[in-house]
Specification:
Structural class: alpha+beta
CATH architecture: 2-Layer Sandwich
Order of helices and strands: EHEEHHEHH
Largest sheet: 4 strands, antiparallel
CATH class: Alpha Beta
Number of domains: 1
Shape: globular
Helix content: 25-40%
CATH topology: Alpha-Beta Plaits
Strand order of the largest sheet: 2-3-1-4
């Protein structure tokens, strides 16, 4: 994780539904781009952190949202840093060719939210933010590039929320974890 003078960072989750199994030859061009694009992200101005499976160079082996869904979870110092990497780097080639490898989503597949500097979001937290965006639309809690909320707006939103006392979870035969893909 890189050091930062910012008090908050921008977290992003992107999910993509595979058109073909990951080891299918039609996915080879995407797989070949992974290491160079991830290396570019790691060196990009404003990059803080990205999720990688333990012992792996990336997160493509993790499937918390379903066997045919890959996730990309990262943290950036600013919106501009994430935007520049996404649309002004080698990552743009992946974006241009994404229909070769991924299904078109009919619901939100990208969510952004502010986190305190130094906080590394969990996959469960990220999937919960995506579920919030899908269920309620953009808000200071879960937004997109086109419906962007500033860190100040997010802080005001948090302060305006009523204080909630923890509630004992109901006992059920199958408890649902916060990161359970069925919650999405």
């Amino acid at each position: 994780m890189t050091a930062s003078a910012h008090a908050v960072h921008l977290a992003e989750l992107n999910v993509a539904t595979l058109r073909h199994p990951f080891d299918d030859p039609r996915m080879a061009p995407f797989v070949e781009m992974l290491n160079p694009v991830n290396a570019s992200a790691d060196k990009a101005p404003g990059f803080v952190w990205r999720l990688a499976e333990e012992g792996a160079a990336d997160a493509t082996g993790l499937r918390p949202a379903g066997e045919d869904v890959i996730v990309n979870l990262s943290v950036w110092e600013t919106r501009e840093a994430l935007w520049d990497f996404t649309y002004r780097s080698g990552h743009l080639e992946v974006m241009r060719r994404r229909r070769e490898w991924f299904e078109r989503h009919v619901e939100a597949h990208l969510v952004l939210w502010w986190v305190p500097a130094g906080h590394l979001p969990t996959v469960g937290e990220a999937l919960e933010r995506l579920a919030d965006l899908r269920a309620h639309g953009p808000s200071p809690r879960a937004f997109t590039f086109s419906s962007f909320c500033t860190a100040a707006e997010a802080a005001q939103h948090r302060q305006a929320l009523p204080s909630v006392q923890p509630v004992e979870p109901a006992q059920s035969p199958r408890a649902t974890l916060a990161g359970d893909a069925t919650a999405v």
